[in-house]
Amino acid sequence: MCSYYDHRTSCFCKLITKDHSFFEYIFEFFFINEFQNHGSEHEHGFLWIKNAPMYGMHTNEKIEMFVDMYISCDVSLLPNSLQNAQQHQHTCTCKKKTIFL
Length: 101
Known about the structure:
Number of strands: 2
Strand order of the largest sheet: 1-2
Distance between the termini: 38 Å
Number of domains: 1
Strand content: 15-25%
Largest sheet: 2 strands, antiparallel
Shape: extended
C-alpha cells in the first residue's frame, strides 16, 4: 500500500510541475510524508509559484485573490459523484476514548 501511495504522490508532483496547467509555474516544491496514529499516510507540502504575491510586499487583497484562484471550500463545485466522498462523517474511530483511572 505504501509503495502505491508513494507512486501516486510522485505522479502528482510530475503532473503539477510538467505542463503548468494547474498553477502558473512551479519552480520549486517540497513534500513530506506523515503517518497518523492509526497508520494513515498523508502529505504536507509547499509550492513555490512564479509571480505569486508575497506577504509584506503585496496587499492582503492581492494575496487573497491569488489564493482564491486555486483553493475553494465550496463542495458544490465538485461533480455530484465526488461531493459525498468529500464530506466527513463521524465514526467510532473519530473520537478519542477516555480512560478512567
